[in-house]
Amino acid sequence: MICLLAGSMIAPLMAGAITLAWTHSVEKIVWEEDWRSTPAGLELVEARVRGSGAGMEPPPEVRLVNGVWSWKPNLPPQAQVIMRRSGATADWRICMAGQCRPMEAYVPPEADPIVMKVCDKP
User: Fold this and answer.
1) Which residues pair with 108 in a beta bridge?
2) Which of 62, 64, 89, 93 gives the lowest tally of CB atoms within 10 Å of its CB?
3) Distance, CA of 101 to CA of 79 (rounded, Å)
């Protein structure tokens, strides 16, 4: 299961796989990453972007599917993913089973940074 940590607060997402989505601050283009919980850590399964520019260039192995650039990033499982909130853009979005909600649905809107990790077993 995946958890979000905001200071001492722990928000279990009750899911072993999520899509993390956000809108690029300059290009105003949506970026999505599919993450799943594994025994080795968080695995980045796929990344998608609906355009390019300003640090958003897709890698050479990218494929265009229905107007969306998609690829499998070459990244080992991560112990944690740290997300920052600048306040200059819309909040991160967490999508599970086709439903997306802003990060503030899980952690306080002023919490920064937010750490995503595999939940500790009780």
Assistant:
1) none
2) 64
3) 24
CA distance 23 to 26: 9
Tokens found for residue 77: 């499982």
* Cβ contacts of 100 within 8 Å, gap of 6 or more: 19, 21, 93, 94
Give 40's DSSP letter. T
pTM, two decimals, is 0.89
Alpha-carbon distance of 68 to 75, in angstroms, equals: 21
Tokens of 39: 């025994």
**Rg over CA atoms, the chain:** 14
Q: Which residues pair with 30 in a beta bridge?
A: 23
> CA–CA separation, 78 vs 35, rounded Å?
10
C-alpha 44/C-alpha 11 separation (Å) is 20
Tell whether omega for the bond before 12 is within 30 degrees of 0, i.e. cis: no
State both tokens at 61: 């192995």
Angle ∠(44,51,58) on CA atoms, nearest 5: 45
